[in-house]
Amino acid sequence: MIARLHPRPEIVVSSEEPKARATAAALAAALGVPHRPMVGLDEQLRYTTPFRTDPAGFQADMRRLVDQPQAVVFGEECADDARTRFGNAVQAVMEANPHETVAVVAHGTVISLLVAHAGGLDPWPLWRSLKLLEAVTVDIPGLTIREPTP
């Protein structure tokens, strides 16, 4: 989740991917705020990547993605392209929703790539620290992490 100024959102915007939409819809319903799916907030594109049952293999793929950000090492999108696409979508979300507080329900890889790049951080430790349904609170503009993720 990427939020603007305060942790309690006035709107929840999500990736169009089914799990993100369902999570965002449930969050919005619980908060009594609107939910809007938006194009561009998807995870790094991996349509042709087979599902890995071995966590170590998936982590090795992710490490290569982070270590070689300009190369397509798995899937259809390099880390730099995924970060740029996601960053443009987040910017569009913030421009289209001028609320003081905005939540973006998206995916760990693209969130890590964008927030780490904006802060001059290594995305690998941030990605590894994120758990399912983890929230990263950042200030806009700048994407400065407000509540550091362990």
Write a brief structural summary:
This protein is of the alpha/beta class. Helices cover about 45% and strands about 10% of the residues.
Q: Could you characterize the architecture of this molecule?
A:
- With 150 residues, the protein is α/β, with parallel strands linked by helices.
- It has one domain (2-145): Phosphoglycerate mutase-like (Rossmann fold, 3-Layer(aba) Sandwich).
- Helices cover 43% and strands 11% of the residues.
- The chain is built from five helices and six strands.
- The strands form two sheets. The chain has a four-stranded mixed sheet, with helices on both faces. A two-stranded antiparallel ribbon has the order 5-6.
- The chain is globular, with a radius of gyration of 15 Å.
Structural class: alpha/beta
Topology, number of strands: 6
Cα separation of the termini: 16 Å
Q: How big a fraction of the residues is strand?
A: 5-15%
Question: Over all CA atoms, what is the radius of gyration?
Answer: 15 Å
SSE series: EEHEHHEHHEE
The CATH homologous superfamily is termed: Phosphoglycerate mutase-like
